[in-house]
Amino acid sequence: MNPVSTKKRLTLRLTPIALGILAACGGGGGTSVADGGIRGTGSSVGPVSGFGSVFVNGVKFETRDIVNQRVESNDEISTEGDLEKGMILRIEGKWNKDGSGNAEALKYDDTFRGPVTDIVVPDESTGTPGSFRVLGQTISYDRRTVVRVKDGNLTEGMTVRVSAWRTADGYRASFIGSATTGSDFPLELEGRIDEVQLDKFRIGDQWIRGGQGVSYPGDLTINDIVKGALVEVEGRFLSEGGDVTAAEIRYSDDRRFLREEGGEIEMTGPVQSLNVSGSTFSLNGVQVDYDNETEFDDFARSRIADGLLVQVEGEIRTGRLYAEEIDLFEGNAEVEAGVLSPFEGSAENELNVGGVRVRITNNTLIDRDDDDQTPLSEANFLEVEGIEREDANGTFFLEALNIEIESEDSGEYELTGQLTADDPNSRKLTVLGVEITYDQNVGSENEGWRDCAVVSVEYQKVTDGFQAIGIECDD
């Protein structure tokens, strides 16, 4: 499946999520509550997926108890109304028995703020993510990235704010948005110090100059500016595109992911430094320990790998996160197809997309054009990326992570998922719960697909079901 073009993604507006609005103006709905779930007081750190309150990590947090819905931030994000979908937010609050939450504090901090350089657009033919650089740091972006920039295109020199997770080879953006240059400290970057000289230090290929006017908020002091230290810097260019003159230097955002000893936390991020034999990995700079008691929600623990986006819930002990539950937060299946008549007895948060049962949750990001208020159930054509799941009744469905609305139904559908059945005699295969008929020519072309766990099928709707027009291995 090809990723959506950069231009298309940048012109989309993200729609709030609330239960029941599949048939009303605004987007998708439904609830997604982990079987375990934090009960009582805790922290949640992850990308915002909706408003009308704030949705983070699949939980709807009411914010009415926070005065003026204030957000603790020094990046000109003052209230809930300044937040955008995709921004990585920390919420302190209380969880209710029904899985909802009451927020007591909202905290946000940009990862980067500065001019864009070295843009590499996504490769639609291979699904390779795009990338760009800000202040010497490489940042990748993909279909899960919310991109909101002026005029709909990333361009060289454009000033952006980025909310991102650190990875082994740079950063992975959750949000990219236009930024003004009017703040006191228009530039922000984080990273590991590679070199220190008398009056300056280098992160990647960006030099930062200190001086007597530099503030050191928090625990960091000037004596901590050493090679290998992971820091966050705010400041401005000494001359355009040159060294950054630091105004504030503090430890990096890693510490916002921690909680006091014994505290419950759920957070999302990419797996790093996986040690399979030791059952540990790093998530946002915090070591995660898992064992046989850890619940892997609908995916095999053998699938965990560096770079995989996951959501972890557990308890902080001795500076480590002991995982009670690990959920997949990365799509492993897709469908691009027309919206068909609802399934018999379908739930309020379900759609029939090209025969695939698509379920909307509080984690679903829904993209639509600015002037499009069509309910999802009345849309013509959708592109859905999500997680393939099977419920207790053996029904396969796609838990939607991203939904993009297309204006026209081309009649040409495509899906990617596990090949759960294939009968060469009747020439029928099943993917994502959809039974698709194929003829001899289609079945024999690229015949190696029969030995693949995951296949991609191009198909179309016919009078008595669905007919394949192309089948390929997608392992």
From TrEMBL:
<keyword id="KW-0732">Signal</keyword>
<feature type="signal peptide">
    <location>
        <begin position="1"/>
        <end position="23"/>
    </location>
</feature>
<protein>
    <recommendedName>
        <fullName>DUF5666 domain-containing protein</fullName>
    </recommendedName>
</protein>
<feature type="domain" description="DUF5666">
    <location>
        <begin position="124"/>
        <end position="176"/>
    </location>
</feature>
<feature type="domain" description="DUF5666">
    <location>
        <begin position="268"/>
        <end position="326"/>
    </location>
</feature>
<dbReference type="InterPro" id="IPR043724">
    <property type="entry name" value="DUF5666"/>
</dbReference>
<feature type="domain" description="DUF5666">
    <location>
        <begin position="348"/>
        <end position="391"/>
    </location>
</feature>
<feature type="domain" description="DUF5666">
    <location>
        <begin position="190"/>
        <end position="249"/>
    </location>
</feature>
<dbReference type="Pfam" id="PF18914">
    <property type="entry name" value="DUF5666"/>
</dbReference>
